[in-house]
Amino acid sequence: MIRFENITKKYPNSNNKAVSDLTLHIKEGEICILVGPSGCGKTTTMKMLNRLIEPTSGNIFIDGKNICGQNSVELRRNIGYVIQNIGLFPHMTIAENIATVPKEKKWDKDKIAKRVDELLELMELDPKIYRDRKPSDLSGGQKQRVGVARALAADPPVMLMDEPFGALDPITRSKLQNEFLHLQEKIKKTIIFVTHDIDEAIKMGDRIVVMKNGKIVQQGTPNDILSSPADEFVENLVGGNRSIKRLNLIKCEDAMHKTLSVKMDSTIKEAKSIMEENGLKTIAITKENDILHGYIKLKDVEGKEGMVGDFEKEMEATVEKRMSLNDALSEMLRIGQRYIYVADKKGHLKGWIGINDILNAVSDND
Ligand SMILES: Nc1ncnc2c1ncn2[C@@H]1O[C@H](COP(=O)(O)OP(=O)(O)O)[C@@H](O)[C@H]1O
Ligand SMILES: [Mg+2]
Question: Which domains does the chain have, with CATH numbers?
Fold first, then answer.
């Protein structure tokens, strides 16, 4: 979808190349993160894509078309752009800010008004309340949401995001990151996202491009970067706890095993025979529709009779299938147990994860 071919940028007043012979291919619908220390050339690379900066040499193609031959104003209208801080025009209302590109594209008034409200709703800002406000009346997080809405206004296939959440406090930041990932599942834009924060890169990226001194030092999936950093520079950038960070990338549903369960109205005899046949020390108890309810331990029912409900223990913790293995590990440590049950959002039992699954997930001999 996007190809940088041997791109070099040397600013006239500088001796060094800000970007040096960079070749990079970005696939349609992916979030490609440019990450690296301040001054490594991330913003310069990004701005060459919408021609806010012209390369010194090399070519850039979008959908096979060389952008150098295109009208730069028209090009920019088809690329959404979200920047840190200076995002919004302070003298305009929120609605006017969002409407910037649709207006330039000469959409009719009703279509613009409808699109503005639709985007405000998408960003969880009530149009009736926020439409006519000025940016100064909004919190940092709200401003950034409006910034994203403005970039999406004319539904461009490509979005550039330059440290979009950099100025926010950690809690708001994490919330907006999650919201944005959720949104991207629906809108499937091709996104180039710049950050100097490797943890943000790991969380947000389908692919990570690590830059240093205007060059790419490594590119790959977050798991590639964490499991095999190309050199000491990347290793230091990624920091300690590489294995723990990898656990964040794996969802419980991708590591869990199928599990057996018994219904609340089963007899102890039935439950015991299932446990003995399958070598289980515990078994989950479900109510109607496989909703997880509790569990029993084999040792508690040794020599006992009756119904499983009489010996049921309350589930101290479960994880949701979309949570990460890191969440699963934290819960296991919290309750001091070597396994944990996995349920979906509505509580239906889906499987279990053991401590060994977590060890296997981050062992390097795969
Ligand atoms: N307009 C400019 N004129 C001269 N040098 C610049 C200009 N913009 C950026 N640079 C230099 O180019 C290099 C890369 O900058 P930049 O792309 O902004 O890096 P990053 O976004 O990774 O922090 C830096 O050394 C920076 O000082
Ligand atoms: Mg920058």
Answer: 2-247 (3.40.50.300), 252-362 (3.10.580.10)
pTM assigned to the model: 0.82
CA distance 176 to 313: 38
Q: Which secondary structure element, helix H or strand E, spans residue 152, and what is its range?
A: helix 140-152
Digit-coded pLDDT (tens) for 176-205: 898 899 899 999 999 999 999 999 999 999
> Which residue, by CA, sits nearest to atom 25 of ligand 1?
39
In ligand 1, the atom with minimum distance to the C-alpha of 9 is 12
Tell me how far the alpha carbon of residue 202 lies from the centroid of ligand 1, in angstroms. 24
Cα separations in angstroms, 199 against 41, 213, 222, 316, 344: 19, 20, 10, 30, 27
Question: pLDDT for 161-173, tens place per residue?
Answer: 999 988 888 888 8
**Alpha carbon of 349 to ligand 1 centroid (Å):** 52
Q: Whose CA is nearest to atom 27 of ligand 1?
A: 39
Using a 6 Å CB cutoff, which residues line ligand 1? 11, 13-14, 18, 36, 38-44
